TrEMBL record:
<feature type="active site">
    <location>
        <position position="139"/>
    </location>
</feature>
<protein>
    <recommendedName>
        <fullName>4-diphosphocytidyl-2-C-methyl-D-erythritol kinase</fullName>
        <ecNumber>2.7.1.148</ecNumber>
    </recommendedName>
</protein>
<dbReference type="InterPro" id="IPR004424">
    <property type="entry name" value="IspE"/>
</dbReference>
<feature type="active site">
    <location>
        <position position="12"/>
    </location>
</feature>
<keyword id="KW-0067">ATP-binding</keyword>
<dbReference type="GO" id="GO:0019288">
    <property type="term" value="P:isopentenyl diphosphate biosynthetic process, methylerythritol 4-phosphate pathway"/>
</dbReference>
<comment type="similarity">
    <text>Belongs to the GHMP kinase family. IspE subfamily.</text>
</comment>
<feature type="domain" description="GHMP kinase C-terminal">
    <location>
        <begin position="209"/>
        <end position="259"/>
    </location>
</feature>
<dbReference type="InterPro" id="IPR014721">
    <property type="entry name" value="Ribsml_uS5_D2-typ_fold_subgr"/>
</dbReference>
<keyword id="KW-0547">Nucleotide-binding</keyword>
<dbReference type="InterPro" id="IPR020568">
    <property type="entry name" value="Ribosomal_Su5_D2-typ_SF"/>
</dbReference>
<dbReference type="GO" id="GO:0016114">
    <property type="term" value="P:terpenoid biosynthetic process"/>
</dbReference>
<dbReference type="Pfam" id="PF00288">
    <property type="entry name" value="GHMP_kinases_N"/>
</dbReference>
<keyword id="KW-0414">Isoprene biosynthesis</keyword>
<comment type="function">
    <text>Catalyzes the phosphorylation of the position 2 hydroxy group of 4-diphosphocytidyl-2C-methyl-D-erythritol.</text>
</comment>
<keyword id="KW-0418">Kinase</keyword>
<dbReference type="Pfam" id="PF08544">
    <property type="entry name" value="GHMP_kinases_C"/>
</dbReference>
Amino acid sequence: MTDTLTLPSPAKLNLFLHITARRADGYHELQTLFQFLDYGDDLHFTSVPGEHGARLAHSLPGVSDADNLILKAAELLADKASGPLPGVVIDIDKRLPMGGGLGGGSSNAATTLLGLNRLWRLNLNIDTLADIGLALGADVPVFVRGHAAFAEGVGEQLTPATPPEDWYLVLKPACEISTREIFCHEGLTRDTPKIKIRPAFEGDASRYRNDCEDVVRKLYPEVNQSLEWLSQFGPARLTGTGACIFGRFPTESAARIIWESKPSGITGFVAKGVNQSPLHQKLTELK
Ligand SMILES: C[C@](O)(CO)[C@H](O)COP(=O)(O)OP(=O)(O)OC[C@H]1O[C@@H](n2ccc(N)nc2=O)[C@H](O)[C@@H]1O
Ligand SMILES: Nc1ncnc2c1ncn2[C@@H]1O[C@H](COP(=O)(O)OP(=O)(O)OP(=O)(O)O)[C@@H](O)[C@H]1O
């Protein structure tokens, strides 16, 4: 019998995203609120007796294996081990759109770090795994730590937070957006004053926004149109650098009613916001 461990690789939303400065190395200082969704990819880790190290069952369309964050995470983890590691093949059920601002690649990297740490019995602690994750991307540490968080720095200084676990309608306009393109754009607002006191997140939503939204609306009319459509039903916002947008609803049925009436040509899904990552929930159940 084959031995397969299946772990979730959830999406994140940036409930708000403020850009407060640009650093000398070109990276941006952010203040953002991360929450997970109970929706995402699944990674299947299957032991392969007689092999050593990790490999992919299938390549992802449009991503070379050398660039795939799953293999990059596995390689960085293998560097921390001494001696040969058991063979593992990793298969992925990809549901999260790439270039969507939902953190799919970063989440895959984090699920790989936690999954292989367990399968390879490396016993690295969460701080070490979050440090390894940061080398792969600014969004990886929050997925490694697994709690909704207010983030500062480039997104790695995390303070656990408990925003309301509402329902979201997430729409994916028909375009892919490169995070780099948006952060390099000359029109980006980079001087939002820092929030000094940790915000009362349930409070005045109009104080918070996504600073990437104006640039993305101008460059991608598809996103602009989707935001205008969703705004009819309540506040609608971009996540990360897009392309996905979201609206918040108190119940699943309220979100599904709007979902049923969405314009043709837009994909998306309805999901619940959760403050504990489904990955960590699953790992706790396995203990
Ligand atoms: C926009 C967010 O999704 C918000 O959560 C993240 O800040 C992006 O995180 P990510 O996709 O893991 O980004 P990375 O892979 O680290 O960086 C991609 C590119 O985005 C730019 N970048 C990213 C994060 C950041 N704080 N400042 C930046 O300027 C850099 O040009 C970088 O080359
Ligand atoms: N396992 C992976 N899954 C998805 N994308 C990957 C993966 N490995 C590498 N990538 C690359 O990362 C890019 C960004 O993909 P991702 O799904 O993380 O986008 P995103 O949601 O916009 O990210 P973020 O919100 O972190 O900016 C893809 O276009 C792809 O080239």
